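Question: Hello, beginner here. Any chance you could explain the protein record under this note? Any guidance would be welcome.
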Amino acid sequence: MFVSSIKNNETQIIRDMSSISAFIPYGELGLKNYFDVFKQMPFGRFMFNSVFIVGSTVLTGLILNSMIAYALARLRFRGRGFILSFIIALIIIPTEAVVIPLLLMVNRIGWLDSYQVQIVPFIVDAFSIFLFYQFFVGLPKSLDEAAKIDGASPFQVYWKIIVPLSKPVFATVATLQFLFRWGDFLWPLMVTRGYEYRPLPVAIQQFFSQDPKVWGDIFAFASMVTIPSLIIFLLFQKWFIHSVASSGIKG
């Protein structure tokens, strides 16, 4: 895809699609296709929308989901077991099963075609809570007890002890949620109407549906959508692998 995106000859791109030549950078190379994308559509606006929506969802979700998981894993209160079972049950429910009721709800409160309609419904995530919970349960209880003896409140224990020790799971959740949200297509398509609030996955669908199709431009657009995901994964790869390895050792 990336190699084809830097080939300026459209005929060459089409000819190479069904052969190994598609993976070989040769012929007339350049960034013409990328410049064409910016000329045809407000790509910068779409990129800003995606970064803002995904960044807000992931950062806010890290705080709220980890705090919920901390309460379930380290504190004792009535109804804790039921809440945990309910959260685990939510994991098996696909988003597609609730989009219609959710769409009716956000339409009633006037949130359609906005940023908040793409952020708020996805901040609290059952799978993220479960990952945090599994990691927090494995931390020694003696840490909490020692902190409480020194007069620390539950929030201070969470913020000053649990969070610094949980960098691997924070990186894992951030990476997974970024990938999930970055590629989200169905919900943004349903709740947005124009360019102002639409993210990249919806924009690339609109770009692909244009006629005539210019494959060099399409590959350039797709490359710019994919590259941020690769960068995020490479940045957090060490912590991601460490978290998976730690979970395997505990199991």
